[in-house]
Amino acid sequence: MKLTSIIVEDEETSRQILKNYLKKYCPNVTVLGEAENVEEALVLIRNNDLDLVFLDVEMPYGNAFDLLEKVGDIDFETVFVTAYNHYAMDALNAHASYYLMKPISIDELIKAVDYVTEIKIKEEALQNQVLAPKTNTVNGKITIPQLNGFEVINTSDILYCKADDNYTEIFLNTNKKKLVSKTLKYFEDILKDTSFARVHKSYLVNVNEVVKYVKGKGGSVVLSNGKEIMVSASKKSGLLSYFK
């Protein structure tokens, strides 16, 4: 499994050694960037989707724990790299995945990367099994994945879904909108046994929320919130079959 990472270390020589070790002994790790202080690290963390951060404890203008506090909700694994063993308990309390002592042992580095890889494989398996959007015909709910877990939505709360390239915008009757990294076809498939109809290449509507149909070649539907959506001619008969 491929892992994206950054190296946060104030000593250039130490950064280069770790990067070379990773390239040679841990080829599944891609180093996206390097930082030599807390502020540089924050920029990299906020601008990249990271699996792993190699983090030196002592840096100029703040330490590793200051950085983690500023990050807040952490969605990556952390491997502490330090010459001081008295930080071990603090690292444990900061939920570090591994603690490497300088000079870095290649065997320990490989163990650290293997450990994080195993964590990520398990997380991905869980996401595929549980967090992927799915319909439960018993309770009329779907779950949509988020960075820190998943959100449960009642299908009855969905007004319509709109295609946005490889994403789908889900519009709710609470005037809220959710953006999900799944195609509209995906939601059409998982909602096929419910009251949802594909009325256009870009729209999937909750038929229970339709309050008006306007005639035309394909026509259009007006939803309970006043939203009017065009109906493709090829989708017209499928939509009208719900009202026979």
Would you kindly provide a brief summary of this structure?
With 244 residues, this protein is an alpha+beta fold. It has two domains: 3-130, Rossmann fold (3-Layer(aba) Sandwich); 135-243, OB fold (Dihydrolipoamide Acetyltransferase, E2P), CATH 2.40.50.
Tell me what you see in this structure.
Helix content is 31%, strand content 34%. It has helices at 12-25, 38-47, 64-71, 88-93, 106-131, 184-190, 236-240; strands spanning 3-8, 29-35, 52-56, 58-59, 62-63, 77-82, 98-101, 135-136, 141-146, 149-154, 158-164, 167-172, 177-180, 196-200, 203-206, 210-214, 220-223, 228-230. The N and C termini lie far apart (52 Å). The chain has a five-stranded parallel β-sheet. The protein has a five-stranded antiparallel β-sheet with strand order 13-12-11-15-14. A three-stranded antiparallel β-sheet has the order 8-9-10, with helices on one face. It folds into two domains: 3-130, Response regulator (Rossmann fold, 3-Layer(aba) Sandwich); 135-243, LytTr DNA-binding domain (OB fold (Dihydrolipoamide Acetyltransferase, E2P)). 28% of the residues are buried. With 244 residues, it is α+β, with helices and mostly antiparallel strands. A hairpin with a 2-residue loop joins strand 4 and strand 5 (62-63). The chain is built from seven helices and 18 strands. The radius of gyration is 25 Å and the shape is elongated. Helix 2 packs parallel to helix 3.
What general outline do the C-alpha atoms trace?
Answer: elongated
Number of domains: 2
Which residues sit in consecutive blocks of at least 5 with pLDDT less than 50?
129-138
- Proportion of residues in helical segments: 25-40%
Radius of gyration from the alpha-carbon trace, in angstroms: 25 Å
Task: Output mean pLDDT.
Answer: 85
CATH level-four homologous superfamily name of the largest domain = Response regulator
The proportion of residues in beta strands is 25-35%
Helix-strand category? alpha+beta
User: How many helices does DSSP assign?
Assistant: 7
Terminal residue distance: 52 Å
How many strands? 18
In CATH, the topology of the largest domain is named: Rossmann fold
Q: Main β-sheet: number of strands, strand sense, barrel status?
A: 5 strands, parallel
Going across the major beta sheet, what is the strand order? 2-1-3-6-7
Assigned CATH class of the largest domain? Alpha Beta
- CATH architecture title of the largest domain: 3-Layer(aba) Sandwich
What order do the SSEs take from the amino end to the carboxyl end, as H and E?
EHEHEEEHEHEHEEEEEEHEEEEEH
